[in-house]
């Protein structure tokens, strides 16, 4: 998300996620050459929707609480080169208390940019984050192919920031699976103008299975003025013989400690001339931040597809 007053994607979001600590992270060790910080969140939340009854319980209420913890380290190698690493895990409050590694990567930062390898975001995430701003819904209409997504394993990533221009490129290697060829590569760039406008574009190409070509391009724009934020992301691509289109719009307005946000997400696939709407909904959300550590939020999803159910989601989150 963008490290600004409203919350969206800044021009240096990728570099910040690679080499910097989280906003509320505590530095547990630091000297002239190295540092270690720890951070995370405890998030109690629930979802209300008729779709939750599909599990056979007949109950529309579903707990979706989770916790995250992350470790970030930096160490000086030379005056021009710094090593860094990050690990982040998420624990869901389910019956089996699932623990999932969200990020595991390491690399080095130079004057020419940052280079890293591991489980980390694709180059396109700095563009998709323009509209992925809600704590509840949204951000699921422009990942048309797997190479566009966040938290990808076997991911080689480069990110460089040059004044207001940011460029990122990545290569995702197949994990020695003979049944599925899913190598991909991508490049993305954005420019942040001094008057609040940011523009970005990206391209992804690769495989999504043996002999299945997958590619997409992304266009993104955002505008920020005082406490107002507006953004849009458009994606078009192909997965085998299926044509894919997706777009998202997002807006936010901050009033003191309260943030009102709204998104619209649409995704459509077309195979042999037959079109199908995969995503089509509006979502409204309100967030109240008591301080930098504690916030509450509530969001409502208005589905536009006939067989899809509306959803209400609420939560309280503590960042440490």
Question: Could you characterize the architecture of this molecule?
Answer:
- By secondary structure, the protein is mainly β.
- It has a single domain (13-319), classed as Porin (Beta Barrel), CATH 2.40.160.10.
- It has two helices and 18 strands.
- It has helices at residues 13-19, 125-128, and strands spanning 26-30, 34-48, 61-63, 66-76, 82-92, 99-110, 113-120, 152-162, 165-172, 184-192, 197-207, 213-225, 228-239, 242-255, 258-271, 274-289, 294-303, 311-319.
- It has a 16-stranded antiparallel β-barrel.
- A hairpin with a 2-residue loop joins β8 (152-162) and β9.
Provide a short characterization of the protein structure:
With 320 residues, the protein is mainly β.
Question: What is the fold's blueprint, element by element?
Answer:
Blueprint: H1 13-19, E1 26-30, E2 34-48, E3 61-63, E4 66-76, E5 82-92, E6 99-110, E7 113-120, H2 125-128, E8 152-162, E9 165-172, E10 184-192, E11 197-207, E12 213-225, E13 228-239, E14 242-255, E15 258-271, E16 274-289, E17 294-303, E18 311-319
Antiparallel strand pairs: 1-2, 2-3, 2-4, 2-18, 4-5, 5-6, 6-7, 7-8, 8-9, 9-10, 10-11, 11-12, 12-13, 13-14, 14-15, 15-16, 16-17, 17-18
């Amino acid at each position: 998300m963008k490290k600004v007053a409203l919350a969206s994607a800044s021009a240096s979001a990728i570099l910040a996620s690679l080499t910097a600590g989280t906003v509320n992270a505590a530095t547990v060790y630091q000297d002239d050459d190295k540092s270690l910080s720890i951070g995370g969140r405890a998030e109690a939340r629930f979802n209300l929707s008729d779709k939750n009854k599909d599990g056979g319980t007949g109950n529309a209420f579903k707990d979706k609480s989770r916790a995250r913890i992350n470790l970030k380290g930096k160490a000086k190698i030379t005056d021009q080169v710094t090593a860094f690493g990050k690990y982040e895990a998420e624990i869901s409050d389910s019956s089996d208390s699932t623990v999932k590694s969200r990020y595991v990567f390491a690399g080095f930062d130079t004057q020419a940019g940052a280079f890293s390898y591991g489980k980390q975001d694709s180059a396109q995430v700095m563009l998709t984050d323009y509209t992925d701003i809600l704590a509840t819904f949204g951000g699921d209409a422009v990942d048309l192919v797997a190479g566009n997504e966040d938290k990808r394993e076997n991911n080689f990533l480069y990110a460089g920031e040059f004044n207001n221009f940011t460029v990122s490129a990545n290569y995702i290697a197949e994990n020695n699976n003979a049944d599925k060829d899913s190598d991909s590569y991508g490049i993305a760039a954005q420019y942040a103008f001094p008057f609040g406008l940011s523009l970005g574009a990206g391209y992804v190409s690769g495989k999504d299975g043996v002999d299945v070509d997958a590619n997409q391009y992304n266009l993104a724009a955002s505008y920020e003025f005082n406490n107002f934020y507006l953004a849009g992301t458009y994606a078009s691509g192909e997965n085998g013989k299926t044509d894919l289109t997706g777009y998202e719009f997002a807006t936010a307005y901050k009033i003191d400690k309260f943030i009102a946000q709204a998104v619209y997400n649409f995704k459509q696939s077309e195979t042999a001339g037959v079109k199908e709407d995969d995503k089509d909904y509006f979502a409204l959300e309100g967030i109240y931040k008591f301080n930098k550590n504690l916030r509450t939020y509530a969001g409502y999803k208005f589905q536009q597809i006939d067989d899809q159910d509306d959803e209400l989601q609420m939560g309280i989150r503590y960042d440490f």
